[in-house]
Design brief:
The protein is an alpha+beta fold. Helix content is 38%, strand content 20%. It has a domain of 170 residues: L,D-transpeptidase catalytic domain-like (Beta Barrel). It contains 7 helices and 10 strands. Strand 9 and strand 10 form a beta hairpin.
Length: 257
Amino acid sequence: MTSPTKLLINLGLISYFLLNGFNNYASFIDDQLQYSRVKRAYQEKKPIITEKLSSMDLSTDNVEVMIKAYKYEQKVKLYVRSKSKAKSESQWEIYKTFPFCSFSGDLGPKREQGDFQIPEGYYHIMHFNPYSNFLLSLGVSYPNKADKIKSSARDKGGAIYMHGSCVTIGCIPIEDEPIKEVYVLSMFGRNNGQLKVPLHIFPFEYSETKMKSAKQNYPQHADFWDNIYSIEKEFDKTKIAPKVGIDSNGDYYKIAG
């Protein structure tokens, strides 16, 4: 049997780690607000975000965020949903759309350093950068497992960001005011427990016509596009985002459940 003293110690340790974990969980915004650029963006954009979310019956305390970027249309769509709803029933709603303000490369995935390509695939925000040369920036988790398997290049590149300003050699620039709002909204998602805020990048918004034309112009990417859109077409219909895995061939697949 466990002695009363040991039981109290164990309960105390559990309470400490739970409390410490909650403090760390709740501190992401506080940590970010230590940076002057983030603080200014937060002060400017929080009222706008709060009002918009309220009109969607959401709040900064329960919102989750997903970002989708489309290269051909050169636009970014922000989606939001309630954290409190059951995941299997929680549909994503469009929060706002912002345009790219510059573009590099062509349709098709990024495969190596220096190809000027914007990646294509299923990624997440891996870095909130308050010191960006382009005001603020959100790091894209490129190269992911799929990119590493599909590319034979020694140097596959990296440091891909969504950022302010209007210059790019493979990043997604959306000007200063939009990046402030995207950055702060993503902070709320992260603070609400989204350790990996989804950031998905596609060659175009799917349609049969666009797919047919794209395959004719870029036949080398046909199989890759069939793969990524096999998942995205389901989202377009249901607005429920499935979990996405990557197999040993570097192909994306829907995780059951």
